[in-house]
Amino acid sequence: MSTGSERLDIGGVIFADVDQSDFTSPFEVLSRLPGARFHVLAKEKRPIRDVHGLILTPEESFAEAPRLDIVLVPGGRGQEALMDDEVTLSFLREQAASARFVFSVCTGALICGAAGLLRGVRTTTHWSAFHLLPYFGAIPVDERVVVDGKMVSAAGVTAGLDGALRLAALLRGDRVAQQIQLAIEYAPEPPFPGGTPRTAPKEILQAASRAVDEITEARLATARRIAARLGIEPLPAEETGR
Predict the structure, then answer these.
(1) pTM for the structure as a whole
(2) Residue numbers annotated as active site
(3) For a FRET experiment, which of 48, 106, 198, 216 has its CA 20 to 30 Å from that of 130?
């Protein structure tokens, strides 16, 4: 941890059908760190639509990116298309080798897993994909934010803010992180108590689960295939639930 203002090169990866909040929420925090230079990165430099149609524009391609201190890997439905994208996976492996932290948000953890970065690593992800973590050799941890060495993971979508503030404290100290939290007035008061599967009413959980059934099944098939490629033998899915 440093409380100084030495330069920090932070790179956030974006891709088609990313969930923009997985990216923009951490950006809101990390871009405010003293000395931070935030790089918006993609495989190619062209506008990208997030899963709900918001247009994001990368400023640098992977080939143009500097050596990064922090690598941000968001999730979203577009995560599936990257699980066999060797350009993206190689970029993550190469950057992770020297980065101070790799920070996954939501199903960005699955992309990190496909890159082989989660073997033996305590990790969290979105509740709908949590049972898939062992297929990548990860140790599932049912927490909103998990830090294990240089790997930082946040659960679903809004947990990216919590993870980014935790990372800000690791990088620049609690005082700086608290100042950023106050500056963005992050003091959540959700109108409903059902923000996790444990707290949501049964009928709400069932409806939310049905809404992601198709992508969840696709992710399971992909996870099984990636596990075979990585030579990982996970526990049966029913033994790894939350």
Answers:
(1) 0.95
(2) 106
(3) 48
